[in-house]
């Protein structure tokens, strides 16, 4: 087996492990493993408490970056836990309302109720959208596995009829997404965040990493620009980023680059110094296990850094911006 096939098999296995609820709960409740693996996760997450998220937000804001903050979690399975997540997001919005303008709040709908009851999820989303509107903040709904896409888009469409400060994330890797984008462009006015997609889907139900996917991604950005919608280009893909930065049409539009915390800090700094708006996507909270697995699966060599940090710790990514 060659290296690329080995890495692909490793990434697929890691994505499967990431979705193992029993393993995730074991790590979270383990007095031994939680602090060890948290050291690895802190390459990609601000920390496991709100104060750490706000600290990183403030440090990035001071250096001229835009920020997006998320209390990390998904697939919450009880109403009590969904309500607790809602309350933490409310606390996050309250804290961000006192900071510098421009902070965005991101969230998974399955974190606040979608996996329990769509009405519960909508009630929580409505409450957060209202609070964020008063605070002058924007919410952006993340996209999840393709099985949830219809529900997520329906809830976004409903909330967009009442609030203008709620955006949506779309995954370029799903064959349906161009049609979904066309629909989203007909309603609402929130930011459209475009990602390639990190979720493990069944063979034939997604477009693999390829020039085809890159072209499709750029096509989606162009459709947003042509429609006059704010678009967040959420990628570390250098061919896409070169295309964005070398074409003046994007500099004159409501286009920003969004990059994950701790990844390609050198590139983020270069783009910012070149005058392109750059937003750093920050996460915090105790549900970092799946997020860590996805970051390693996307770039398997990250496993070396993860092991090193677990054993010996490492430099805080915030110092590299």
Automatic annotation (TrEMBL):
One of its GO terms (biological process) is L-proline catabolic process to L-glutamate. FAD binds at residues 143, 171, 196-198, 235-236. SUPFAM superfamilies: FAD-linked oxidoreductase. Binds 1 FAD per subunit. Pathway: Amino-acid degradation; L-proline degradation into L-glutamate; L-glutamate from L-proline: step 1/2. The keyword Transcription regulation does not apply. Its cofactor is FAD. Residues 59-298 form the Proline dehydrogenase domain. Keywords: FAD, Flavoprotein, Nucleotide-binding, Oxidoreductase, Proline metabolism. This is proline dehydrogenase. It comes from Paenibacillus lautus (Bacillus lautus).
């Amino acid at each position: 087996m060659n290296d690329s096939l080995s890495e692909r098999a490793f990434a697929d296995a890691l994505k499967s492990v990431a979705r193992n609820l029993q393993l995730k709960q074991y790590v979270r409740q383990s007095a031994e493993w939680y602090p060890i693996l948290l050291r690895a996760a802190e390459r990609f997450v601000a920390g496991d408490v709100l104060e750490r998220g706000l600290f990183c937000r403030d440090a990035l804001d001071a250096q001229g970056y835009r920020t997006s903050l998320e209390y990390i979690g998904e697939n919450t399975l009880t109403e009590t836990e969904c309500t607790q997540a809602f309350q933490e997001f409310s606390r996050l919005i309250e804290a961000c309302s006192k900071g510098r303008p421009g902070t965005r709040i991101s969230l998974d709908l399955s974190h606040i109720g979608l996996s329990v009851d769509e009405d519960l999820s909508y009630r929580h989303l409505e409450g957060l959208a209202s609070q964020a509107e008063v605070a002058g903040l924007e919410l952006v709904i993340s996209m999840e596995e393709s099985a949830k896409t219809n529900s997520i888009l329906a809830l976004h469409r409903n909330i967009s009829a009442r609030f203008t400060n709620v955006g949506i994330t779309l995954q370029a890797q799903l064959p349906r997404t161009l049609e979904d984008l066309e629909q989203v462009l007909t309603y609402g006015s929130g930011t459209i965040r475009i990602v390639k997609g990190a979720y493990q889907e069944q063979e034939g139900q997604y477009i693999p990493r390829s020039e085809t996917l890159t072209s499709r991604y750029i096509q989606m950005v162009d459709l947003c620009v042509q429609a006059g919608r704010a678009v967040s280009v959420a990628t570390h893909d250098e061919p896409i980023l070169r295309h964005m930065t070398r074409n003046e049409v994007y500099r004159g539009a409501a286009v920003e680059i969004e990059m994950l915390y701790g990844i390609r800090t050198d590139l983020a700094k270069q783009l910012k110094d070149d005058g392109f708006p750059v937003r750093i996507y920050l996460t915090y909270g105790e549900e970092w296990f799946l997020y860590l697995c996805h970051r390693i699966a996307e770039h398997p060599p990250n496993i070396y850094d993860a092991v090193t940090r677990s054993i010996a710790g490492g430099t805080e990514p915030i110092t590299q911006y």
